[in-house]
């Protein structure tokens, strides 16, 4: 299962999808993930968290007017999530994957501000951080228990993943820089 963050807000969208914790990959049994539609740091009325699973689109919240959603991480799942109004105005898309085994890459789900540092870690099902090789696309960046990307810029955007000899590799995740 692959994870991808489709970057960028529509210029017309004043609302974005807020994710807590701000990660793209999770294991089953991790704490829940909260998603909400927000504008200027406030919950956005009139917006609904939507998701696509297996080609079907559905509301993520309990009702069609709920601007928030809590994902149950008790089972493996995946999907693309976004915020939408009844008139069809949409926010950015974020893909989230929940795995029941293997290795995950801890990487921000939301776009990162240019000039900030970003720390990537490879985590095992046990919760332990493990030493790994880190990659962007097909290029190896380094190895160790974490990789710090200093003062990220637009050229740091790409598909990241980590790999170990013993535990295999994580799904790919797209880091977006704004």
UniProtKB/TrEMBL annotation:
PANTHER family, alphabetized: FC RECEPTOR-LIKE PROTEIN 4 (PTHR11481:SF64), IMMUNOGLOBULIN FC RECEPTOR (PTHR11481)
Domain Immunoglobulin, chain residue ranges per copy: 107-178
Protein name: Immunoglobulin domain-containing protein
Organism: Ameca splendens
Coiled coil: none
Domain of life where this protein originates: Eukaryota
Keywords, in A-Z order: Disulfide bond, Signal
InterPro entries to which the protein is assigned, alphabetical: Ig-like_dom_sf, Ig-like_fold, Ig_Fc_receptor, Ig_sub
């Amino acid at each position: 299962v692959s994870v991808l963050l489709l970057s960028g807000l529509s210029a017309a969208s004043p609302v974005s999808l807020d994710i807590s914790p701000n990660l793209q990959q999770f294991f089953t049994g991790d704490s829940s993930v909260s998603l909400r539609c927000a504008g200027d740091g406030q919950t956005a009325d009139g917006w609904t968290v939507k998701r696509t699973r297996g080609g079907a689109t559905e509301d993520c919240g309990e009702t069609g007017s709920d601007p928030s959603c809590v994902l149950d991480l008790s089972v493996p799942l995946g999907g693309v999530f976004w915020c939408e109004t009844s008139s069809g105005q949409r926010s950015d898309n974020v893909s989230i994957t929940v795995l029941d085994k293997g290795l995950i890459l801890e990487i921000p789900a939301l776009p990162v501000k240019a000039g900030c540092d970003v720390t990537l870690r490879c985590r095992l099902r046990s919760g332990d951080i493990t030493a790994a090789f880190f990659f962007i696309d097909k290029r190896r960046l380094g190895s160790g228990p974490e990789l710090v990307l200093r003062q990220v810029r637009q050229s740091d955007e790409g598909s990241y993943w980590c790999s170990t000899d013993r535990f295999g590799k994580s799904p790919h995740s797209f880091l977006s820089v704004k």
